[in-house]
Amino acid sequence: MSRREGSLENPQADSSVSSLPQLEAKIHQTQSLARLLTKYAEQLLQEYVQAQGDPFGLPGFSPPWMPVVGLSAPAPGHAGLPAPERLQLDARALAALPPLLDVVRRLQAELNPRAQRLLRRLEDAARQARALSAAVEAVLAALGSEPRGPWPEPAAATAAATTAGVFPAKVLGLRVCGLYLEWVSRTEADLGQLVPGGPA
Amino acid sequence: MLRIGREQISFGCVCSFVFLEIRWKAGSVHIAFWSQDCPGRTMMDLASRLRRPSQRVAGESRRMTSHFWRFLWTLALLGLMSPVNSQRKAPGAPRDLKCTTANLRVWDCSWKAPSGAGRGALYEVCIENRSPPCYQLGKTNTQIPSLLPGDHEITINPLHDFGSSMSKFVLNEKDVSFIPDTPEILDLSADFPTSTLHLRWSDKGSVFPRHSNVIWEIKVLRKDSMEVVKLVTHNTTLNGKDTVHHWSWVSDMPLECTTHSVGLRCYVDDPHFSGRKEWSNWSPLKNISWSADSHGRVFPVDKVIPVGSDITFCCVTLEKVLSAQIGSVKRPLIHLDGENVAIKIYNISVSENSGTNVVFITKEDIYGTVIFAGYPPDIPQKLNCETYDLKEIICTWDPGRPTALAGPRGTTYTLFESFSGKHEVQRLEGFINESCRLLFQILPNQELYNFTLSAHNPLGQSQTRILVNVTERVYPHAPTSVKVKDINATAVTLSWHLPGSFAKIKLLCQVEINKMNSAQELRNVTFQGADGSSYLTAVGGLHPYTVYVFRVRCSGETFWKWSRWSSEKQYLTTEAIPSKGPDTWREWRSDGRNLVIYWKPLPINEANGKILFYNVSCSSDERTESLSEIPDPQHKAEIQLDRNDYIISVVAKNSAGPSPPSKIASMEIPNDDLETEQTVGGGKGILLTWHYDPNMTCDYVVKWCNSSRVEPCLMDWKKVPSNGTETVVESDHFRPGVRYNFFLYGCRNQGYQLLRSVIGYIEELAPVVAPNFTVEDTSADSILVKWEDIPVEELRGFLRGYLFYFEKGERDTSKMRGLESGRPDVKVKNITDVSQKTLRIADLQSKTSYHLVLHAYTSGGLGPGRSMFVVTKENSVGLIIAILIPVAVAVTVGVVSSILCYRKREWIKETFYPDIPNPENCKALQFQKGVCEGNSALKTLEMNPCTPNNVEVLETRVTAPKIEDTEIISPVAERPGESPEAEPENPVVVSYCPPVIEEEVPNPGADEAGGTSQVIYIDVQSMYQPQAKPEEEPETEAAAGAGYKPQMHLPVTSAVEHAAAEDDADNTAGYRPQASVRAWSLVSPDSPRSTGSNSEVGSFGSPCSVNSRQFLIPPKDGDSPKSDGGGWSFTNFFQNKPND
Fold this sequence. Notes:
Chain A is mostly helical. Helix content of chain A is 62%, strand content 0%. By secondary structure, chain B is mainly beta. In chain B, the strands form 18 sheets. In chain B, strands 53, 54, 56, 57, 59 and 60 form a six-stranded mixed sheet that branches. In chain B, strands 5-12-11-8-9 form a five-stranded antiparallel sheet, with no helix packed on it. Chain B has a five-stranded mixed sheet with strand order 10-7-6-13-20, with no helix packed on it. In chain B, strand 16 and strand 17 form a beta hairpin. In chain B, helix 11 (1033-1040) crosses helix 12. Chains A and B meet through helix 2 and helix 5 of A and strand 29 and strand 30 of B.
């Protein structure tokens, strides 16, 4: 493992926190969780587009990403940030996702009441995002970095956006599911850079 | 009246439907034009008064021709060009008086000023019969109150204008045009979500003097190009007041897509106004438009439409739309104003739950909307309202056809109760397995409920009704807490809980009683209902010590539905004393001193509990013997008694007490007159009958046992009341094919007498074995057979007889099978006398093998057969006769032949053996001796005594015809040149000059042939088969060239060659020993083996004696005739020479 800022060899790490093996184990555990959630997020996205009807899910159909109030995709320069800062951003984004996923689940409950699997996946995704966010914050705390405060509550603004109609609501759901996938995979990658043997 | 239609006349616009109507009445002609689709609906009416005497009209009308029509047209056109009707005018006078009205109250009249009149000219207008009749005006128009129907004279006199003159006009209402004022739209609004325009205007009815019908014409225009998309009429009535009217219109295109404009005009159809009525002018257009923002939008938004509808979607955008699609199907674009576009969908199909997506794709973005195509709610089916507990009513139904709409677009059901005015609402969200049911709280003091179930969704609604008396629709919950409590051994108390408020009704409950191995029993109980109470009932008539399973269900007394059954409750009733004593029998031991007492275990319904033990006692007048507390599994006891009469008593006892004693007498009354009978049952049991005997005062007992078992004979018994005369003895132990003994006892004076002894079968079967039989004696024409009995166990029925089959046959022939199959050559003897044990079969043939089969049979069938083969003895007299007759015939023939030959011997000799000339007498053949000795090449001319040889060839093959003696003279001598050519490599021509062995008659012919004789050994069979397979010759030759060649190959003739080749072909495989009959040639052992120069002719001949025709080495092959094997044969007897 190369010596990078935020790596386990970081001398800035708080000596009062858990011992090194415990920290390593925690990072490993969190990364495994992120990896698992990445797979779930892919399945959620696939399930979502299938439930929306054509042309959702058709090859070549990619509605422009509408902005989601309170949450944005990982910035292009995200990878260049120091590790604690990346993890802070990951934790904040993951914390902002559950309310959005809840909104999407409510919309889909009205729109697709028979799509029980999709509704269950959305419910699980909100819970899992919350858990991953907490796990990343725990890693941050172990690294001695204070987590930033959460992003503003996006649910209210998102709910207003959904009153424009069903189609924008479908696109919003697609966007939220896509953001969920992006952030959990981003978190997995960021955590991977902290563990020995991970990508440099 | 005459009407002329479909003329186009231009009045500033083209009217496609212009009609000319001409009506004539007496003295007048009325000409009118009107149009149906010109704006303003022009109507012109020309009246021409052609006053003519009526009598002339009648005459001229008959002469009306086309000239008259041309006149009418001209007149009409004149009328159009001169709208003002008849008026008298003078040059320099006011002219062209015109009058119109907008409200029928006031006429607006105007005229043209006389030429030269100045702007400030004054006119005096006088109207006939008006007060004041005249007034002055400084203008050329005036408003006058509407005049009454009829002609009115109006005088207009220019004042202070000396050059002008007064004008007089005759004004009639018919000359006035009624043109309503231009209507004004009060309001035009739009409901964008529903694409509906709402129009509001006032009819200004207060200005009109009376009620009239009004026709409003409304037009809707779309886009900037003002395309008329809707033109509709709307009828109202003027009622003297200003009334605001509404009109709504749903656009097929969303109103947001483009600008929509609405205009309005009216036509007042006053029936009393005789003048010309015209449309008003169009009102100013009112517009509806939607201001697009910078972001594109697609309309309609989330609309719900019925399946099969046509719908238009549009995209309002500032960008150029590249394509549009619904779902995955692209649709052509319809261009609207600006960059706005639309697509049209026809006959839309049902949507998925999430709706059908419609998207418009621009270069930069994608805009979309969702459409929900579904069905209006079906009429709810199978509506049913009932109550579980009289607290609430549950109504359930089947929603029918799915609407394909879910969530907020799902069907909402409203249950409305009309008597109370209350309602309950439920919305079906579309979840899986969503139940359709609504609860309605029961109201106090209300039993009758009139429910209306309404279903509605965005596409429509439906409803159904049901009227229920709730007390008659009780479907209680399943009873709970079922409990059982003893009353006594035959009755229990059953209680249960039933939730609900049933105080107002009676309940009907059903108790199900199940007993092991018994049919279930249902008992109905009626209760007065209670509120949330337990219910109790006694269940009697049970059996002691019996396991019962109880369960309960209830309904209202006015039956609607049974509740579900309660859970089962199992209960064992308590014990009671046994109701009867055991069924008892007794048997004396064969020694007559011990009495064995048998009793049967009490059935469960008589034991009334668990039998613990039995008490047995035997009492007579003198003594009593008791056996106490014999434990239950034991069901017999043995007591040593004398031959006195005893009464045996058996008592069974359970925990509740002893049973009544069961008594039986020990005495047996002898019966000497008894015969054993036979009977066969019906498969399950045996019927025994007897005659009624009044002396039998007790009962009858039938006991039975297996007849093959050893004593005591007691398998079971059965008691029959004393008045019975028959019984069917049945037992699970009975088996078909087993013989049983049945004994019928009658009870008389406390003693039992054997009345009948019967052996029988429940069902007879065929014997399982065949009877053993032996042949006792045989003769030349008969066989005596004897057989044994079949044991009873193997007989399996009463023996009915034997079947004896016999026929000619030997052991190894196929006839052994199926002897009894009914073939005609099989003889059968049916022996029905079962006591017969022997049978003599007569009329047989001597020294003949017979196949015998013996079967036993019962009523159950034919048993297996046992077979035997027997040969009858030979008849010696016949044999002797058979030998003597041929011998006598042969001797007779021989004697006669000898006599004949002897008497004709000279003739025979001359005929068959004429004298041969002696060659020595021929001078030509007398050679010099030296020459013959010196040159061997001239040997053929040597006249040595070269005795012709007689050669006999003996054929030994069986298949060929027998030739006993063959004499062949070598043909080679006659055709010497053929031999080398026929067989160059295998010359088998053997020349030799044998010594004289037998002094036979010299053969002059042979001497002529030369000193060297050629002897040809020919297979006799070949001689008889000269044509054998000529086509196989090459093959046989090739085969012959390989391996050992027998010395038999003699190319004498082609026929012989073929035969020889065939023979060789048969023997090509390796060495063939000379034991073969064919390979052996009969030749004298002293014959020269190589007298010629051809050394390839090796050993020849076989090891036989010189004169013997019998081979010295007997053949070993299996195919050699047996007669050659050294044994005596008839052929040898005649052929062989007695050389030994």
